[in-house]
Amino acid sequence: MDQEILNSLIVKNESKIIYLIMDGLGGLPQQAGGKTELETAQTPNMDKLAVEGSLALLDPIGHGMTPGSGPAHLALFGYDPIKDNVGRGILSALGVDFPVTGKDVCARLNFCTLDADGNVTDRRAGRIASEINERLCQKLKDSITLSDGIEFFLKTESEHRALLVIRGEGLGGNINDTDSQQTGVPPLLAKGKDEPSKKTATYVNEFLAKVRDVLKDESPANFILARGFAKHEPLPTMEERYGIKCAAIAQYPMYRGLARLVGMDVLERPETYEAMAEQLKENYDAYDFFFVHFKKTDSYGEDGNFDAKVNVIEEVDKWVKGLESLNPDVLVITGDHSTPAIMKAHSWHPVPALLHCGNGLNRIDHTKSFGEDQCAQGGLGRMEMKNIILEALACAGRIQKFGA
Amino acid sequence: MDQEILNSLIVKNESKIIYLIMDGLGGLPQQAGGKTELETAQTPNMDKLAVEGSLALLDPIGHGMTPGSGPAHLALFGYDPIKDNVGRGILSALGVDFPVTGKDVCARLNFCTLDADGNVTDRRAGRIASEINERLCQKLKDSITLSDGIEFFLKTESEHRALLVIRGEGLGGNINDTDSQQTGVPPLLAKGKDEPSKKTATYVNEFLAKVRDVLKDESPANFILARGFAKHEPLPTMEERYGIKCAAIAQYPMYRGLARLVGMDVLERPETYEAMAEQLKENYDAYDFFFVHFKKTDSYGEDGNFDAKVNVIEEVDKWVKGLESLNPDVLVITGDHSTPAIMKAHSWHPVPALLHCGNGLNRIDHTKSFGEDQCAQGGLGRMEMKNIILEALACAGRIQKFGA
After folding, report:
1. CA-CA distances (angstroms) from residue B188 to B118, B119, B122, B177, B204?
2. Closest CA to B78 of B355, B296, B387
3. What is the distance of C-alpha A177 from the center of its chain?
4. What is the Cα–Cα distance from A178 to A193, expressed in whole angstroms?
């Protein structure tokens, strides 16, 4: 929906919307004719909501498209997952809780090993321990200054991986990877694809030259490779787009960062699911919209652990029971994408979704439980993920009539 | 579908298409687990057509978007409900059967009350009786002449509401409301947002100044407020778009006007449903496409009268029985939008639709009755309302193959 038209239709009221997101929720059966993780799980609370509500299948990006976490979450929040997509460097920054600003170009680093001729012999420097990574980052920070007052930041992720941020006025992020993904060849120089990015590339190359000098006597990590350069282009906030004050309740940095990117207030990191429930209750009066994120469904999917993914879904189902007392006007339960355990990876399969309106304003379909096959028969049909927020806002009485 | 491509594919033949529209047909159950109005109604004739035909859910504008009657009908006729949307002033003109031309700028008027300082004290002039409104309109028509040969027309709607039309060459409709929606402040002047509209604004302000003088001794209605200025931008007709000669059978002015807007011949206003059936039979040979509009489903929905809406649907179902003898090549039964009785208003919920081909060229799905949940499982799926005309034209053999 065109933002200008939407702005003219959005109204504010006292309604509450809860978005309960199980990361990588969608799945596949272990054998032909079997049940998916969600269909296998005993979920009496979500099944009751399915009976009273409407089901759907959501396409995060489009048919056949497997989304990363960034675009999938943007689609959940109603943004365009392709046009508004966030670069890898930015996602890395979010993943280590780095507070990105509008002056930053971010990139993912690998410590690597160069031979005497300057050719890459190991793109991951033997997967050095994180402690060594930390020591090297500190050494670089202590030793290097860039010209023209340009700042840089380094932050260890884990093993050989780190974050690089170059901060300054007028920098662009259209820069090639310096990692050629090959060994036996030298690392590439940074080249900018436009004027602001050429400016950044100058400082990146200055930085790389100084790194080579500082690390020349280290082993095995005597250089770095950079990839995924990206500038942070600010997005309109959820509040600007939909007139809703939003809070995020999430344990993992990446999702906390994605929420911050669309202007949500990110509540203090909760240690447990109980703490997440407490945060929701304590902040219920202060916000219109709550993004509640459960990560482990995706983690176990990536591990290929079907049973553990089933168990997490059952745990979340018990958690859902606790929402009854709040009786939100609109409750959406879904995932950001599918992570079938048998694939050990994100997949393109559309994501099961449940829309329940405490105010009675959703259609009731004949579906009897929350699962992929029931969702394929759901009253909302198969839809683009980015539209589910419009269904939620409408059910919450927050979108006025278009035309007379 | 791109109009140029469509034009290259459209062919004419002897087929007949009937569009049976129950205004505001879509509904909601009265309580969780219950049935909608359409699902509650006993509709043996439409159920038989559902068994033989295909069902769908139609989105008039998009997910979460609640349509007015204007955009919803444009979508039914295959026009873009947003791009081709018709301004409020034009809809008002259609609603009082005013024959709008391409030189007209239309606006909705309220008679209002000003105090001695010229501030609005009552935006509706105490909701004066329609007879007073008529007398005042006549007085203004008798007393006012505009410069440069610009014409104006006034037509009473009801109570304090009337229609204003300014007619002249080269006028624009981008003009602010002179109603600030507040009391205790003076009415606003008209300002045009572009050159043609600035020209119109000059005549509107001349008109307002003269109205103030003519009504100065009236009470309580001593001035007018104008809103919803709109120019009539002619749309291509249905015949130009689809090569079909179209007739409209409708009782209410607004829908007769919308049909006229897309070039349909609007048959004489029928007093009863029997008269509508008669008109259809009498004109069956003379047209390719019939738009038959039943209003009361929407009226009772707006009243919050669930049972009365159910009764109207049952009446229309009996009417449908009469179509058997005509055996149209294509029969579409749907609504323009949803008006759930429990909401007493238009809503965003997708609209149940039935496509039946007397010539046997529609897919047959497993659905057994005409209702929202069955439509959610229908063979046509959930689709944009503006595309249903293409399905109908195709079933009628009126769209040729694209490409070789």
Report:
1. 11, 10, 15, 8, 11
2. B387
3. 22
4. 14
| Neighboring chain A residues of B91 at a CB cutoff of 8 Å | 404
Query: Is the CA virtual torsion B395, B396, B398, B401 positive or negative?
Result: positive
Give the Cα separation of A73 and A90 in Å (integer): 14
The DSSP line for B78-121 is TS-TTTT---HHHHHHHHTT----TTEEEEEEEEEEE-TTS-EE
* Interchain proximity B62–A387, CB inside 8 Å: yes
Distances (CA, A) of B11 to A113, B262, B396, B399: 70, 19, 10, 6
Q: Is A165 exposed, middle or buried (0-12, 13-18, 19+ CB in 10 A)?
A: buried
User: Containing H/E element for B26?
Assistant: none
Contact A351, A385 (CB under 8 A): yes
d(CA A175, CA A191): 6
Cβ atoms of residues A175 and A191 within 8 Å: yes
Subunit contact A403:B349, Cβ cutoff 8 A: no
Q: What is the identity of the amino acid at B402? A: F
CB atoms within 10 A of CB A64: 8
Q: For B333, phi and psi rounded to 5 degrees?
A: -120, 120
- pLDDT tens, position by position, B37-68: 999 999 999 999 999 999 999 999 999 999 99
Half-sphere exposure of residue B380: CA atoms within 13 angstroms, side-chain side: 27
- Taking any CB pair shorter than 8 Å as contact, residues of chain B touching chain A are 28-29, 31-34, 36, 57, 61-72, 81-82, 85-86, 88, 91, 228, 342-343, 345-349, 372-373, 376-377, 381-382
| C-alpha closest to that of A166 among A122, A123, A226 | A226
Buried b (16+ CB within 10 A) or exposed e, B321-335: ebbeeeebbbbbbbb
Q: With contact defined as beta carbons under 8 Å apart, do B10 and B398 qualify?
A: yes
CA-based Rg of chain A, rounded to a whole angstrom?
23
State how beta strands B246-250 and B265-266 pair: parallel
Segment B212-255, tens digit of pLDDT: 999 999 999 999 999 999 998 889 999 999 999 999 999 998 99
Q: State the Cα–Cα distance between residues A249 and A287, nearest whole angstrom.
A: 12
Q: Chain B closest CA to A380's CA: distance in Å?
A: 7
The verdict on a CB contact (< 8 Å) between A391 and B348 is yes
The tens digit of pLDDT for each residue in B132-157 reads 999 999 999 999 999 999 999 999 99
Q: Tell me which residue of A18, A95, A21, A102 sits closest to A284, measured CA to CA.
A: A18
Distance separating alpha carbons of residues A191 and A312, to the nearest angstrom: 45
- Mind listing the pLDDT tens digit for each residue in A299-342? 999 999 999 999 999 999 999 999 999 999 999 999 999 999 99
For B398, the 3-state DSSP assignment is coil
Question: Which residues of B fall within a CB distance of 8 Å from A9?
Answer: 65
Residues A138/A129, Cβ–Cβ less than 8 Å: no
> What single string gives the DSSP state of each residue in A304-348?
T-HHHHHHHHHHHHHHHHTTTTT--SEEEEE-SSB--TTTTS-B-
Report d(CA A30, CA A37) in Å as an integer.
9
* Residues in contact with B54: Cβ distance below 8 Å, sequence separation at least 6, in sequence order: B354, B355, B356, B362, B363, B364, B365, B378, B379, B380
Q: Residue A224: which of A120, A344, A130 has the closest Cα?
A: A120
CB neighbours (10 Å) of residue B388? 23
Coil/strand/helix, residue B155: strand
Dihedral sign for Cα A136, A142, A145, A150, please.
positive
- Tokens 């280290």 correspond to A218
Phi/psi at B164 (nearest 5 deg)? -115, 130
The two three-digit tokens of residue A93, written as one number: 């920054």
CB of B146 closer than 8 Å to CB of B204? no
The answer, yes or no, to whether ipTM is higher than 0.85 is yes
